[in-house]
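Lab notebook, design round three. We kept the backbone fixed and only want residue identities now. Task for the bench partner: fill in a sequence for the structure below.
Input structure tokens:
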């Protein structure tokens, strides 16, 4: 997948570009959100989690990815110079692979933000349940493949399972 991630590219254009690439790969998009102040995301059909993992995380074995029987694949688009909230989750761990652009990531086991790590296309990071984390757009759009690893099979994680410790957008 090739993406134009230049910082001057219009949000609508980059979303169209990602959507076309996902469709070309035969991924079923079940939700698209372009309204996030930091960028947005595409949610891929959970029935395609194994295919998604094989495509974007070929170095991981499915039995190592699955904590429970439920995985939720997404593509995140983080805009230049924007930050997602400093956050953690009670019911999910996450794995990310940078597909395009350069992004910043901060992680920490405590509420104090860790050092900025710059990740480029091909880099991979894994966050445990409860681990604090933040994705940061640097000088260009960042495109990130993400899998939610649901840790509670009786109560899967959702968008409400976000504890925000700091947020640039007052959420």
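Proposed sequence:
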């Amino acid at each position: 997948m090739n993406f134009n991630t230049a910082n001057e590219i219009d949000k609508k254009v980059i979303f169209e570009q990602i959507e076309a690439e996902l469709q070309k790969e035969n991924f079923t998009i079940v939700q698209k959100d372009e309204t996030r102040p930091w960028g947005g995301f595409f949610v891929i059909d959970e029935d395609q989690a194994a295919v998604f993992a094989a495509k974007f995380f070929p170095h991981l074995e499915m039995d190592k990815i699955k904590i429970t029987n439920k995985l939720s694949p997404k593509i995140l688009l983080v805009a230049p110079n924007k930050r997602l909230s400093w956050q953690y989750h009670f019911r999910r761990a996450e794995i990310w692979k940078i597909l395009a652009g350069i992004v910043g990531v901060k992680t920490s086991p405590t509420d104090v933000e860790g050092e900025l790590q710059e990740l480029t296309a091909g880099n991979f990071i894994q966050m445990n349940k409860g681990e604090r984390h933040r994705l940061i757009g640097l000088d260009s759009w960042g495109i990130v493949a993400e899998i939610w690893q649901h840790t509670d099979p009786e109560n899967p994680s959702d968008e409400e399972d976000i504890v925000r410790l700091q947020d640039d957008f007052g959420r």
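Keep this in mind before ordering anything: The mean pLDDT is 93.
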